[in-house]
Amino acid sequence: MTAPSPPARTRTAAQPDRRDAAERAETGARIASLAAELRGAGVPAGVTEQVASVVRTAGLDAVIGLGAGMLTDEQAGAVLLDALLDARRRGADSAETAAELRAVARLQTVVLQLLSGLAATRSTTGNKDRP
């Protein structure tokens, strides 16, 4: 007679939830980092959105093939090229990469609005001090 096999280990809902949360946090950090790099390189959100459209229609490899010259500013193009190469290394497909770029563009827009609002607030409060 054989001993009964131990019951199969059941996965709790918390295990996949933790993994999903970690993946979302990693994606969010990647998007925030890229948005900051692109903003620092002077890439407007509209340009990021245009690149996302091209990635979606022409494919990730086609855009990577353009090299850093995909943007007029070589430094900005190099930042974007690095991000696209990273997406390919991670195994992201064109649709996923385009979605991430669109999220980056939204974040760039939000940051620009916040910075513009902050600048306007500072100039308005600065005017109150003047006679």
UniProtKB/TrEMBL annotation:
Region described as Disordered: 1-26
Composition skew (Basic and acidic residues), residue ranges: 16-26
Protein name: ANTAR domain-containing protein
